[in-house]
From TrEMBL:
UniProt keyword annotations, A-Z: SH3 domain
One Gene Ontology term from the biological process aspect of the record: endocytosis
Domain annotation SH3: ranges: 74-136
SMART domains per record: PX, SH3
Pfam families: BAR_3_WASP_bdg, PX, SH3_9
Keyword Methyltransferase: no
GO cellular component terms, A-Z: cytoplasmic vesicle; plasma membrane
GO molecular function, one term: phosphatidylinositol binding
Organism placement in taxonomy: Eukaryota, Fungi, Dikarya, Basidiomycota, Agaricomycotina
Skewed-composition ranges (Polar residues): 52-61
Record's protein name: PX-domain-containing protein
Chain intervals for the UniProt region annotation (Disordered): 35-71, 139-170
Domain PX: 266-390
Amino acid sequence: MATLPRSSKFPSSTARAVSEFDAGLNTSTAWTEHLDVGISPDPSGGGASKRQYLSESGVGTSLSDDELDSKDLEETRPARALYQFQGKAEFRELSVEAGDQFEVVKEDVGDGWSLIQNVEGEIGLVPRSYYMFTSTFTSSGLEPDSSKRREASSNSITPHGSPRLSQPPLYPQNTGEWFPSFRRSLLGGKSFNRFSSFVTSGAEEFILRGPTSPPDVTLSASGHISEGSIASIEEENRNKLGSHGLGAADRHFIDVGPSWREKIPPFRILVHSPSKRTSLLSGAYTVYSVTSMFHAPNETLPATVDSPLARITVLRRFSHFVVLHTALTRRLPGIALPPLPEKQYSGRFSNDFVEARRGDLERYINKIVRHPIARYAEIVTFFLACESDTEWNHRLPAHLSMPPAGPAFYSQIYHPAFNLDAEDAEDAGSNFETHLHAVGKGVQVLRTIFGRVRDARIEMSKAERLLSYSLLSLITSRPLLSSSTSTGVNEENYIPKAKSLINSEGAWCWREGCQGCLKLTKAMQKTSETLQNVADLYDDHARRSQLATHEFLKNMAHPFSIYEGVVTTHKATLSRHHNAISGGHKDDEVVARCETILNTTMAEMETYHTQKIEDFSAVTTEHLDGEIAFYEQILLRLQIARRNFDKPAFDHLAESPRQTSIYERDLENPKLAPKPLSQPCPHVFDSTPMRPVSAAIQDGVNILLGPTGRLGKLW
């Protein structure tokens, strides 16, 4: 929260000029009614020259390390800081306090930063939204009037602040490109953007200035939402919502808990049947079938009978998922969205990658529709239900042109009044953050151990196969050539097809017509073949069932990275709330808006709590069910092999000579080297080792000059 202008910390020789502007009136309409940043004329002509300077130098260029010349320093505009900002010297940033005066050298140097010069002559960067030009107020002769402060309504749980005009905040978006992954690995998981989610989500702007265009929604006197409140909204307010792109899907309700109120029941989505297609414009790409399965209401069926499923299937490619993720990030800035799988430019049509991508997209979209308010977002409904390509191309630009919600997202959240205690909220936020870190570390260890379990299944498969080969080698008197070193058997002791080892009926005996040895040999051969089947079960279980569980664990490996924005916003809001109730006077509007955001963050915590129970219950039961089914199949095959040694099955084995086993041909070259075990695709937040620059350069040279390269072929 901004504070009243403080006494200067600088020497009297460099004292600032006294201004009539009061930076502490952040909820007043005195300075926002006539604010026109970058548009209102400047009597001194500085505004025109400033725009000319920006057009000549180029807006969005980065700050150079070179010193500014005298021309740059002459074209400045006076401004005053609205909020406190703690800058970092290593980023060429300046620290300012609310009420500090300085000169703006360059209003926009890119990414929402401005270049300023303070009264001590120091030049550095500050956020563009943290200050306001003062020349406009001096020229218009306007003075803020504290009597214009609006009183907070006791009946409204979403107080309305004054309108304002300012540049929109930054909204970082992860659209699945390879560069964010490279950037995270380079910076140890940190982002270039130094703005916290408290700023980028619009939460800070909502607390300090209120909603930009607040609609009026009538609530009950108790502060709770009545069921018929939506129907009672006046037509004027509906038109106001529609003009700002805010409809019924943009209004969200929080019940006591706090927890999100669900408007529609959950449903399930399958991403399946990937196929490769080719376009003249975009080239080859993979398209996936996305099927939404809803439980259709059926009042004729009893409550114990599941209602029939209603299915809607559409075709989507990866770029469509990118559009969905980008639109959701802009329209729902206050909730924790799962990261979108990253793009891949090499090997993206291989069967293994397409299947891995299909699974990642299915888990991503199901995570979206599991969220109580994300599942009924207009872009989600449009993504899952639009079957016509013509309609998709017609309506998609409207969704892409929707502005970031920012403070409007919080202005559309309604909750019971005074349902939070600040101390309880602080304890909940601290405990939630600690729990997220612990869960993340624990799941990472679990993923590593589970990978070893899968490797152990492959080793067990090799061991069962080797045991089968050894048993078959014993009863057929054929050497196991490739494993003599591992088994310790001397191959010279074996004489293939010698009379003393097997008889004419293929029995493991030196006597002709031995019925007992014939039955024993055939029963042991069936046991050897059963062990081969058991080895196949171990191999398939590790590659399919356990791979699915391993992929499931990946989604729960980085909870703090996903909910870091919620934690940051929760902490910063508590700080603003503390400032609003301390210092001798209480700002009811700021306190109420802080309460709205705290309800939002704690509803997100409750959502994580609910989904954590569901996820870990699902992954544990999935693992147990898979193990039970796996061992049941092994047990069934072993029981069948065991019956061959009991009557009457054992006696029936003597009715015909022994047939050659299909695995005897493998004794000379046993199949004991399985293909590498497939691993889950890395999570977006997994730390990946950086490749040496020399290796990357060498790969580039090989691509160009190698035998298969373009220049290599020409050479």
